[in-house]
Each structure stands twice: as structure tokens, then as C-alpha cells.
Amino acid sequence: MFRTGKYLLTGLAILTSSIAFAQYDDTTEMGNTVVRTGNIKPTASSQSVHNVKIIGAAQIERQGAVNLKDVLTKELNVRIGNDNVLGTSLSLQGISGQNVKILLDGIPLTGRENGNIDLSQINLNNIDRIEIIEGPLSVIYGTDALGGVINLVSKNIMLSKDKPVVAFARGYYETIKQYNLGAGVTFKLNDVDFSASLNRNFFGGYTTDPSSRVMIWKPKQQVFGNFGIVNQTGKLKVRFKTDIFSEKLENRGVPVINHMEAYAYDEYYLTNRFITSLNLEYKINKTSYWNVLSSFSFYQRDKVTYHKDLTKSYNNMELVPSPDANSTNSFLNVMSRGTYNSSKFDKFNYQIGYDVNINSAFGTKIEADKGHMNDYALFACAEYRPVKQLSIKPGFRATYNTRYSAPFIPSIQGMYSLKNFTFRYAYGRGFRAPGLKELYLYFVDYNHNIVGNPDLKSEMSDNHNAAIKFKVKLKKKYNLVVDNSYFFNTIYNQIALISTNPIALEYTYANIDNFKSLGTNLNFAVQVNQWRINLGGSYTGIYNNAFELVGSKKYMYTPELRTQLSYAIKHKKQMPTVISLFHKYNGETFGYALDNTRNIITTYTQDYHILDVSVNQTLMQKKINITFGLKNLLNVQDIRTTGNSASFHSSGSNSMPVSVGRSFFTQLNINL
Q1: I need a labelling partner for 509 at 20 to 30 A (CA). Which of 261, 281, 442, 640 fits?
Q2: What is the tally of structural domains in the chain?
Q3: Dihedral (C-alpha) 109, 113, 119, 125: value to the nearest 10 degrees?
Q4: Strand 624-631 and strand 663-671: pairing?
Q5: Which residues does 331 contact at the CB level (< 8 Å), separation at least 6?
Q6: pLDDT digits 0-9 by tens, 264-294
Q7: 313 in helix, strand or coil?
Q8: pLDDT band at residue 503 using 50, 70 and 90 as cut-offs
Q9: 275 vs 82: CA distance, rounded Å
Q10: Torsion 48-239-107-396 (CA) sign
Q11: How far apart are CA 589 and CA 558, in angstroms?
């Protein structure tokens, strides 16, 4: 089935490429959404110097996306990896996820496992849009923004005297034993807006052998909650927000059965994340304002192991007393970021600011008195328009890091735009200090053996990005939007997992010298009557020092193809019924990696397709929205992989999990 689907989808991609390679989002390509990420002031996407990709709420809803992983799986230039204990990982422009900063309303998310934020832990129920900037934003956002920034912007519900209360309820069901429920309310009391929501996601786990208690995809329960207050008094706007997250993941052990007993060792991973923030925005006049965003973030992950007696129904679990079987690790971040923004002059805008990050880590698997690293920075940028069509935005960041010598970081962006043509270029110097987990965390269980390395060096990078966008008129009514971008990245002292004991499958973090990635994206977008046609293609090459040791100076390239089609069936007395198709082809990847003895490890990952279809209907004046469809129609579950140095499962298998399999889903949203 997989190979048949592979050839069918490849044929579809070739056929549609005769129309155009395209990427279209109904919020961005044909529209002009105001974006905040990386800009001196809120700016229309067409006027932003940065090449911003926006994924709007309508597209998220049509996909039936539950979390950030579901959305990014179908995005070009993004590769998703799955670890059924540590969670999902990503790479952007060929750069691994520890170099991609993920923000929630401008606040960095804490809690990286294996260098990555688990994307399945990021709920989308209250998200209005996702803003993605590929390439370095280290000047503005500091460490971890070397490869790009993904900013999730929460919904801003407008209340009035005529409508002082807004409420919603969400329900989601998927045949892979996924059950989600959520509800929330926003109301006005005097001049203060209050909001609160609570969501619960449940996944029952999955295995190919129904008789086995060991699950390939682990059962888990997630709870998301948030509470917010917004008040505007004169020129001062105050936003207070608290987000909480809790997850329980169950890793059931292989049963041991003999003539005397039957038992198993079951591991439970308990994750808790707490973020509280205060945002003060003071409008000095029509052209200038202060913005101060401060947050307190706490992340804790506990591992608890039980001896389970399989012959009993009650009181059958006993805590395993071994220190290696139980652990608690906590990470704390205190952040304060303030900017003064001025657009007093028509041709000259500027921003100056400070950024403070205080990081602490403590727990049973982190060395005492080692888990502290702070970062203090001043930064500034300016946008100059000598003529209406040209914008130039230089910037710099000066940083003091308590563990690493941080360099002076410059950047420059430029944009030249005409009526139907825009050219953008960006250069940035990047810096990333190793995370506390990479330095000191000792993580060992039945499936993993990872040891931190306190001798790591910091990463540096040079990044170039260029993009061309123009519109082509088709007849009188239709526009074809063409977007072609290029990137070239060099990372010095890149940090990666390497093998220290191939037989025991032990891994640690190490600097593997230099890494390079380059590539291009070609995207077109068109809307014809009820059709929205979105097709895209990308080609990414990677290179590191291991290539030189085998006498190769060539990049290893991998292609991607993306198709999104939507058709709206119009009705006289209700909103249209929208039928959508979402497809992405991830090409096979080849490469070389180094182990700790500088031996060459060849790597390979099989290509695969993901194909979803959905039907979306809005009823009762947008109060009810129903979406249902099929996910992973080609039933791709595992793909072949060999010699992958980043694969540290003790199972030693030559496969990598991609998805649970084909499933049916339905989603109901009620807005009151």
C-alpha cells in the first residue's frame, strides 16, 4: 500500500507542477495580515522587511490540527521527527530544532528534551495565527533564534457593551483513541477583560499487536489551562496571563512471566509547565511607545518507575526504589524584555531594548551548583526608507553570558518593492549557548542513554536569506502569487548527539565542527472561483565536516513537494462547505555523521507522503463549525532509516515512527 501510494502521489505532484509550484494560505498570500514578530511596530505582512510565513486560524481549523506538530508536519522546509518518549523534534532549513526559538505571544517556551520543544505539547485551541520567520533573529530574540523563530499569537477577542461575554466549547474525536474536550469564556467587568479556558486531551496509545501491553505510541493525558486579564487605562495597556500544562505519559514494560509470577516495570513521565507573564505597553504619543514583557516560566519532568504485579487487579503497583529508576528535573526561566519603539519620522523608525534571561536547572540528574546560566543583552535596530520603494533595516546585539563569551551580533535586512514585485534580503550573525540539559543532564531509561557534556562550545553562524515575490494577473479577476526564496547557512561548532559506545547505544552531546545548509523554495498561489490552489516545492542540501573525511565536497540534497487544494460549495442560506486536501512529500535523505572517534557513519532516511482530506462547514451565523475527514490516507506508519546518528533508541531498529496510521477525525467548535 505504501509503495502504491508513493507512486500515485509522485504522479500527482508531477501533474500539478505543470500548473505551478505553490503555497497559499488564505490569511497571508491573498490577504495582508498585520504581523508582530521581528518588527519595530505591528506591520502589514506585505510591508514587513522580514519574509514572514503566516498560518491562520482558518487553515488550522480545516486541517483538524490539534497541536503545533499537526500543522508543521505539512509545511515546506520543516522536517518532523518522532520519539515516543521524548516527543517530537523539528528542523528548519536543514537546521535542527534547538536552533529554532518557539514563542507564545513573544515568551520563549521552556522544556527542551533532546534539544527540542515537544510540538505535541503545544495546544492550538486559543491560537489565532502562527508567524514563522526562517533565518536568524538572534539580534532581536537572542540565543536559540539562530535558525528561525516560530511565534504563536493568541486570539484577541473583542468585547463591547452590546456583547460583554463570549464563550466557546470544543470537541475532537479521532479513531486512534484520541478524545479532546475544551471550553473557555471571556467577559468584561467594568473596564477589565477577563478570560479563562481549560482543555483536556486524551490519547489511548497504539500498537500493531493488540495482544501486547507494550505500546509503540505511548498513552498520554494532557491538560491545558490559561487565565488572562487585560485592562487599558489612558495610555497604559496591561496584560496579565498565566498558562499551565500537565502531561502524564505511560511507558508500559515488557511482561516477565514464569511459573511463579507475572510482572512488568512501567515508567511514567510526568511533565508540568507553568508560564505567567505581565505585559505593559505605554503609548507616549501617536508615534512612540514603551513595551515591557516579563515572564516567569517553570518546567518540570518526573520519571517514576513501578513494579506492576500482573496477577492482581488492585494494589498491584510498587515504587521501584532504585535511584536510576526515578528522577526529577526542573528548569526555571525568568525573562524581562523591554523596548522603546519610535516611528516619529516618515523615513526612519527605530527600536532600542534590553533582554534579560535568568536560567536555572536542578534535579536528581543534574550536577549540584552547575545548573545556572544567565544572559544580559542590549539590542537596537532601525528601519530607513530613503525612497518609498526601499527599506533598509540594520541591527546589532551586545550580550553578556555568564558561561560563554558572546560576540557582537550584527544583522541587516532590506526590501525593495514595486506594485506587484517585492525583493527581500537578510543577513544575520547567530549565536547559541549550549542549553543546561546539553551540558549537565543525565537521561537513561529503557529506550535512551544520553549524557550531557560540560565541555561544549557555543555555536556561531552566518545566515543569508533572499526572497522574491510577485503577482501575475490572470485575465482580469485572478492573481497568481509567486514566491521564490533562497537560503545559505553556516554553523560553526554545531552541537549534535554522537555515539560514545555503539554497542551499548550510549550517546552524548558534542561539537561536530562546521555545518552548512542551502536551498530554495518555489511557491505559487491562485484562487479561481471556488478553487484555492496551493502547491509548493523545496530543495535543501546539507554538508558538514564528515563529508570532507570521505573526500566529498558535495551537498546531500532532499526534495519536498506540498499540495493544498480547497473547493468551496456555495449555498444560498448558509456559509459554504469547504472541501480541502493537504499533501506533503518528504524526499529521502542521505548524509554522513561522525561518532566520538571521528569514524564515519552513513545515514539514510526513506521518503514518504502524508495525505489528509477534510470537510468544513460553518452554521448558525458562525456559531457552530464542524470539520471531519481522514488523516494519513496512505497509512504511512514507519519508514526505513539506517545509520542515523541522531537515533538513540536502544531498540536498535532500522525504522523510524512517522504516524499512528490512517484515521478518521471529527471536530466540533461552538462559539457563543
Answers
A1: 640
A2: 1
A3: -50
A4: antiparallel
A5: 110, 111, 298, 299, 300, 359, 360, 361, 436, 437
A6: 999 999 999 999 999 999 999 988 999 999 9
A7: coil
A8: low
A9: 25
A10: positive
A11: 6
Q: Grid cell 491545558 — which residue?
A: 224
Range of the domain at 91: 2-671
Residue 505 contacts residue 648 (beta carbons within 8 Å): yes
C-alpha atoms less than 13 angstroms from C-alpha of 519 in its C-beta half-sphere? 25
The predicted-structure confidence for 626-658, as pLDDT tens digits, reads as follows 999 999 999 999 998 876 544 444 444 578 889
The b/e string for 233-254 (b: 16+ C-beta within 10 A; e otherwise) is: eeeebebebebbbbbebebbbe
Q: What is the sign of the dihedral through the CA atoms of 183, 225, 616 and 667?
A: negative
Q: Which of 330, 325, 310 is nearest to 446 (CA)?
A: 325
C-beta of residue 424 within 8 angstroms of C-beta of residue 418: no
How many residues does the structure list for the chain?
672
Q: Give the span between the Cα atoms of 51 and 468, in whole angstroms.
A: 10
Tell me how far apart the alpha carbons of residues 632 and 663 are, in angstroms, rounded to a whole number.
Answer: 7
pLDDT digits (tens, 9 = 90+) for 414-451: 999 998 899 999 999 988 888 777 777 666 655 567 77
| CA-based nearest residue to 446, from 277, 660, 254, 280 | 254
Q: What are phi and psi of 23, to 5 degrees?
A: -135, 125
The amino acid present at 43, given as its one-letter code, is: T
Q: Determine phi and psi for 5, rounding to 5 degrees.
A: -60, -35
**In angstroms, rounded to a whole number, what is the distance separating the alpha carbons of residues 68 and 175?**
20
What CATH code is carried by the domain that includes residue 355?
A: 2.40.170.20
Residue indicated by cell numbers 515488557: 254
Cell of residue 63, nine digits: 486541517
Q: Comparing C-alpha atoms, which of 258, 87, 259, 65 is closest to residue 665?
A: 65
The grid coordinates of residue 257 equal 512471566
Interval 31-55 mean pLDDT: 83
Nearest to 496 by CA among 595, 407, 430: 595
Dihedral sign computed on CA atoms, order 60, 65, 68, 69: negative
Q: Are 354 and 377 in contact (CB under 8 A)?
A: yes
Provide the β-strand partners of residue 594: 600
- All three cell numbers of 98: 534547538
Amino acid at 629: G
Are 189 and 196 a contacting pair, CB within 8 Å?
no
pTM assigned to the model: 0.88
